[in-house]
Amino acid sequence: MAMQTKGRNRKAVLAELRKIREQDLKYRDGRILCSMCTEPHPTAKIAHQMFLSSNLGDAGLFPGTLRLEKEAISKLAGLLHGESSAGFIVSGGTEANLLALLAARNTADVSSPEVILPQSAHFSFSKICSLLRIKPVQASLDSAFRVDPASVRHCINRNTIAVVGTVGTAELGAVDPIDKLSDIALEYEVYLHVDAALGGLILPFLKNAPAFDFRLKGVKSITVDPHKMGLATVPAGGILFRDSACLEHIKTETPYLTEDVQYTFVGTKSGASVAATWAVFESLGREGFTKTVNRCLRLTKTLSASLESRGFNLVTKPALNIVAFRSSNSKLLVKALRQRGWFVSYVPRLDCVRIIVMPHLRKRHVAAFLKDLSEIPERF
Ligand code: 0PR
After folding, report:
1. Is the CB of 106 under 6 A from ligand 1?
2. pLDDT, tens digit, for every residue of 350-362?
3. Are the CB atoms for 330 and 314 separated by under 8 Å?
4. Which of 34, 89, 122 to mutate to test the pocket of ligand 1 (most atoms within 8 A of CB)?
5. Which of 34, 90, 97, 124 to mutate to test the pocket of ligand 1 (most atoms within 8 A of CB)?
6. pLDDT, tens only, 31-59
7. N- or C-end of the chain: fewer Cβ atoms within 10 A?
8. Is the overall model pTM greater than 0.85, yes or no?
């Protein structure tokens, strides 16, 4: 479609945008059961608007926004017990994981680098390994789909530059035994990165949650994404390093900008979502997050119990807010649900249906989903 010669008036442009937006699904309709993103907090939306033109790629021009990033990171560090942590709000979990493995690789300085990834690691690591030319080595899982520490130990060799553990795997929401991985990392003096893109803003608000953060001495970096359970606007990922020494390994000089160096991969970078992240942290506080997280987990329980009582098999007992189940033909069931307007995921690796219970889902949505599900013929 060629660009027209004359511009159109604002009213016409906006009217068309409104019409086109109708084609998109809305989180608030409760039909999106396959997303790790959610409707942003109302204050986050306003904050995003307020900082629309702010670019942290040239942070010297936006010292106010930079302050918001520092404060948001310091709040995340507080939740993750990182007393001397340093980090950034980035474009998402992919960039966060990329920076972690870049730091690990540059710290190790090994000519044929390898990273040990659980079979359940997110696919962002495939991109990263290809980009950084790191060989991925797969560690196997236990019966609860958590990485098996013995397998990790077995995979370590002198080329290993990092071990990755996940807190909230993308497919099942499983939580790897980070304490065991930390012991291994310390024993072999290898970098341990924790991908808590999802779980990093869940576990800190639960009673008796296992430690997965900087309290464990082997943990060198953590991914935790505000645009997932943090109710921030997209794009807002988070990367935290144990201390600022790690930053030296991911530094790029930017000689003619207002700041001499950049640490993130993305250059021009949204200040709006940083402001949105800050706004959510201020608005909710620990209490607000605890409420939101517990509501999602209660709904996860209701949903998984109802599915079981209807004869579906759970792949595993949900550790966080993801329910994975099987029917006699899970792939067809996902299609049949899609035809009825429900968006759930089909996970080929596990041949199962996946539902992520994000904050935009309410009891009434889950009830409507279960009703429609029960009307789908048995053969699925
Ligand atoms: N690490 C984990 C554990 C993840 O689950 C994800 C994304 C990432 C890293 C990468 O994060 P970014 O996508 O922010 O770079 N997990 C979701 C998934 O793959 C992403 C997603 C979000 C998918 C919204 C669908 C959707 O509608 O399932």
Report:
1. no
2. 999 999 999 999 9
3. no
4. 122
5. 124
6. 999 999 999 999 999 999 999 999 999 99
7. N
8. yes
